[in-house]
Amino acid sequence: MGRGESSVGVSPIVIPRLGDPWSASVDERDEHLMLLEAARHSLDVEWTQTLAAAEAAADRDVMGFPSLVAYLKHRFGMAGGRAQRYVRNARSALNHAATFSAWKHRLITGDEAELMFRAAERTADEYAEAENVLLELVGDGVEETRRVLDYWRSDVDLPGVRLDAEAQLDRRRFDVTRKQNGMVAGEFALPAVEGESLLTAVDALMPPPADDDTRTTTQRRADALGDLGRAFLEGSQTPVVGGERPHMVFHVDTTGLKGESGGIHETQDGHVLDPFAVSRLACDASVSRVVFGPDSELLDYGRKTRVIPAGLRRAVIARDRHCVANGCGRSAKWCDVHHIIWWIDGGETVIDNLCLLCRYHHTQIHLGQLTLENLALPPTQHHQPRSR
Fold it and tell me: What is the pTM of this model?
């Protein structure tokens, strides 16, 4: 038989109906989702039980498939990973009837049952002895179930836990690429401790968003990761490499500094930056003058100098304390010093022309998405910003 074909009549599954979910009330949608979840639970249990019976009766041999996974992939067009998960659960249901019964009678959820099935696969004999005791301890949510099972495995299978830790270490990776539009993208996998360290650091850089903060959670997390890299580069403990601390280098000419077309504004590796990023970076950075002749010969170079000296930065921090965007309050540690009249427009580097802005609001200012009216500036700082 081909995919979807059947030689016997199949009773249709009754799915609860709501009518038009868009016009339903909140309570009606909530009740309907509860009914759908109950129907999904019954269907998942019935599916697993039937698949377990097919495995026990070796139906695959009768139908000519080398495995139950192959049967599911061919008969139903399933992806291999999904088919394998179904078969693993069916085999576990055969071997651990008490756990399957707890799932069937809704004492544990399907996700909690899967966690227990996976634990049973690692330590089948020990699990069989402890199954009933474990079922009394779990059922308070997926995270709590995982916690109970992790502690139990540490007690009964410490060598296996060590092997899992070594496997995590072997699978660690950080893949990163630079896309054609200049964005940097990647994927990573970290062992549990290192991953927790990263999450803790990123979470610490994600304070509650201000009222005007329209970023999604994943955007805020991305900004926090950028702040983490910046904090490392600017930290006093950053190791010196090649005579100076690691830092980002950008090549910009006078036209590029003005945010105008026709100039140079790129990274040291030749990736072109947008003029808005250049103008933001120019607010609070170190600048080195390099002069080339018409044939690219080096004519002159100057010492690296800070646009905003350290002492003046300390004074701005002492006055503003935090990001001055209305409702923000991000700590000065994570703020840039911004020129109210932009530095590339001749704005003076004096305290009355400076304020603290977090990276998010600083970017908004230079993109023209935020104005002085959105900043809590002292009266003496009500200058006219650059018009866009």
Answer: 0.57
